[in-house]
Inverse folding.
């Protein structure tokens, strides 16, 4: 393998595939990145066996071939180079790769390229396109509600459900749920239901490039492939049945309020300051167009008073402050609507005037009340 | 205690004194900030018994008095408030303090104010003024060379030596040494020699305010007081004799080179990439106006070649890469001069054209050479 490339493009590709590099895996070669030089590109691949990422950079290929190098060394070296052409040449005998820049040169010892896991791109007729920024926003608005506890795998995933030309994205850890609906073009005949690991989506949003681009999503029985620009990401899917989310979203309410998102977010943050980490419960009291938030702990008391537009009955309930903050952080609208069916039923929180997104938050049951 | 103040000024003062708050001290009250309302100011004080910081914010005092509150709660609360007037009132009976903002209110439980350690400002005829930005720069250029190992306290300190109207600032951990000289005004008669803890100076640079201001330094037998604007910092001094630094700075050299600071800094960083943490030794070879840096490890090899202006003999030696990077990071000039008396004697590194600053770096003795 022998090629000349541009530092900037090469570094971009390195930083993208780096996200799939596994430093903890017992298989040392997974801490590496595979380089394949062919035609007018160098392809970079990394995988932790759960997800795999492949990207490429334009290069002048002087001799096709491949090599696997420790991700950390090659990325950090290229990051620290000046913006001059870089000449890269592998030594087939030793497996080491020389990186030449100006008068200087580094030689990095590699892994045997033949031992790098295969990375076949799945092929399937089940595929659809979605605008990169729409997908990014949907993931951001939903993925926070997924569980991180691996004991119940289904809850660590995000449901992508395509029906009647629309994509519904849903996650829940049983304490809270987030739901987003997006119209898709040319997908009227598609009927797909897949559970994508939350971790995969968290990596995906970081590598989705320019906001104007499209992401092509291809689905097989147990894998999903995201294609965008020069980059693709493959992930395993989570097996099992996603809970019936439709059934837990209340269709009616006894109390409804509208208020400023920032007012509630700031008050929630201040009220939770005095609570202990992990048990940040705040009490909310809705009455007569006023929302009162109270917290009473060993450290002191907070009483926040917020003006709201209220319809329906007065109500008292308690929320986990961190869960509420999470929802308000991603809701992306100046005003929100909250709807309640009772002090112990899940509350609905949604952007004012947007029917395509909502979050559900289960109140906390207080011991002495 | 009862006063009204401006959120912004109050928060500034909180963030300054917060630096002296001790969260690890077995004495819980040291995790607090003492507030004293008198005349038209509220004074804030915090101490970890090693250093103490006092600052103030303008306030409308409705009732003089004092209180001690947990630093974390009061600072985080004020940080999260909108920019509206804040009304603060202590309850002498319970020791709690109410913070009222708009329609809302928090009440934070405090410590008994009488138990907060005394904080007398030292008075002494030994004092001098120095421009804040000059002091800041001198600390930055020297303090990195102080040791962090508390077993040899003298080396964790920075020597401030005033003689003949000049201040010399020196630190060494025995592997490296940094020295800076500054002319002082109106100090011809002063002859002071003090060792200030490196930690104190690291905190000091963070609270020194506007670059145009003056810092007044007052010295007693075992304390030093820094006064600037509304803020003062008191610290204990380190006892003992600072090593005779003059004697270790070589006065002659057999080899001298001039080169670009950035060239050497970048090459050093790249060369140390392949070394193990904690043992990042790089070899340097000076010959015929070329500096060659090499590293050879299990991970691979690096060979960096840099053009230099050389006078004197060829030379081979080895440096700890991290120590060299530390020096180059603070040297603050485009070009540097390095002077050597031999492969095992300390090298001098100084900014080209500046006789008031230098660093000394002891070469590493390589086993097999």
């Amino acid at each position: 393998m022998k090629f000349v490339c541009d530092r900037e493009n090469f570094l971009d590709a390195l930083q993208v595939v780096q996200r799939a590099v596994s430093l903890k895996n017992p298989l040392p070669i997974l801490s590496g990145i595979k380089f394949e030089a062919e035609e007018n590109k160098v392809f970079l691949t990394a995988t932790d066996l759960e997800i795999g990422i492949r990207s490429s950079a334009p290069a002048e290929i002087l001799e096709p071939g491949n090599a696997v190098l420790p991700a950390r060394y090659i990325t950090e070296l290229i990051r620290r180079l000046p913006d001059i052409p870089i000449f890269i040449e592998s030594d087939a005998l030793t497996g080491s790769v020389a990186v030449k820049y100006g008068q200087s040169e580094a030689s990095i010892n590699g892994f045997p390229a033949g031992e790098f896991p295969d990375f076949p791109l799945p092929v399937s007729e089940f595929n659809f396109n979605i605008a990169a920024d729409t997908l990014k926003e949907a993931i951001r608005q939903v993925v926070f509600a997924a569980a991180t506890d691996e004991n119940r795998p289904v809850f660590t995933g995000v449901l992508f459900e395509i029906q009647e030309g629309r994509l519904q994205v849903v996650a829940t850890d049983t304490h809270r749920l987030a739901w987003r609906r997006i119209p898709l073009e040319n997908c009227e005949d598609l009927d797909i239901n897949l559970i994508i690991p939350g971790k995969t989506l968290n990596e995906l949003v970081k590598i989705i490039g320019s906001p104007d681009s499209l992401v092509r999503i291809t689905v097989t029985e147990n894998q999903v492939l995201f294609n965008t620009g020069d980059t693709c990401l493959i992930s395993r899917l989570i097996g099992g049945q996603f809970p019936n989310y439709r059934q837990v979203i209340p269709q009616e309410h006894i109390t409804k309020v509208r208020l400023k998102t920032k007012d509630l977010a700031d008050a929630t943050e201040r009220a939770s300051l005095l609570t202990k980490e992990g048990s940040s419960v705040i009490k909310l009291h809705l009455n007569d167009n006023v929302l009162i938030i109270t917290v009473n702990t060993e450290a002191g008391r907070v009483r926040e008073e917020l003006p709201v537009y209220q319809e329906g009955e007065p109500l008292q309930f308690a929320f986990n402050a961190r869960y509420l903050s999470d929802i308000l952080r991603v809701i992306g609208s100046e005003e929100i609507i909250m709807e309640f069916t009772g002090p112990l039923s899940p509350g609905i929180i949604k952007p004012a005037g947007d029917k395509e997104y909502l979050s559900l938050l289960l109140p906390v049951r207080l011991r002495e009340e």
Q: What stands out?
A: Chain B touches chain A through 30 residues (CB under 8 Å).
